[in-house]
Write a structure and sequence with these properties.
Strand content: 25-35%
Radius of gyration: 17 Å
Number of strands: 11
Helix content: 10-25%
Distance between the termini: 13 Å
Number of domains: 1
Order of helices and strands: EEHEHEEHEHEHEEEE
CATH class: Alpha Beta
Strand order of the largest sheet: 6-5-4-3-7
Structural class: alpha/beta
CATH superfamily: Dihydrofolate Reductase, subunit A
Largest sheet: 5 strands, parallel
Length: 211
């Protein structure tokens, strides 16, 4: 499941990178409920460095899922909130990360797994999903930034899409979805089983992705 919040003009952050808060508390509460309903929640290192998220369940009752970070070169700071107590954390990296950094992560009781690097940079998603499934993850919530959102959609790895839309326009800023290599409208991703929910001032659209 891919979940993100955007403005009416499709931005997830301003041109300076500010994203707090795109959506209101009722919509964010729904996001926490989705975390509580999933085995794991995944973000990229860009989100960790920009927002320092906890990725725990706090606004609703429920257990926090496994936290997964895609981090090509192990740049996650040692004091990042995602490494704090509250839920286990797994960092998925590549052989571009140093062995010393991997040992440091293990010494802090942080799980580290190495998968192939995706050219020109990044973590290969298919083997990442395979290792998560081997670890017992059956439901994954992806909450990444634009790069992670775009990668999952481009590779057609999303089963369900949940988008919170805030009644706000930013103009220049970070687009939620980048280039999907779609040349014709007919080749765009299609959604089915759509539902619409009003949460506070925001509207949440949920749908299955036709694969």
């Amino acid at each position: 499941m891919l979940k993100y919040a955007q403005t009416l003009d499709g931005r997830i952050a301003t041109r300076t990178g500010d994203s707090k808060w795109i959506s209101g508390e009722p919509e964010r509460r729904a996001s926490h409920a989705l975390r509580a309903a999933c085995d794991a929640v995944l973000v990229g290192i860009g989100t960790v460095l920009a927002d320092d998220p906890q990725l725990t369940v706090r606004l609703v009752p429920g257990a926090s899922p496994l936290r997964v970070v895609l981090d090509t070169t192990l740049r996650v700071p040692s004091d990042a909130q995602i490494l704090a107590d509250g839920a286990p954390t797994l960092v998925v990296t590549t052989d571009r990360s140093s062995a010393e950094r991997r040992r440091e992560s293990h010494s802090r009781a942080v799980g580290v797994q190495v998968v192939d690097a995706a050219p020109p940079w990044g973590v290969e998603l298919a083997p990442t999903l395979a290792l998560l499934r081997e670890a017992g993850v059956r439901s994954l919530l992806v909450e990444g930034g634009a790069a992670v959102i775009t990668s999952f959609l481009r590779q057609r790895l999303v089963d369900r899409l949940v988008v919170g839309i805030a009644p706000r326009i930013l103009g220049a800023g970070t687009e939620a979805v980048g280039d999907l290599s779609v040349a014709r409208v007919a080749d765009g991703l299609c959604l089915t089983g759509k539902s619409l929910h009003a949460l506070g001032e925001d509207v949440v659209v949920a749908a299955d992705v036709v694969r």
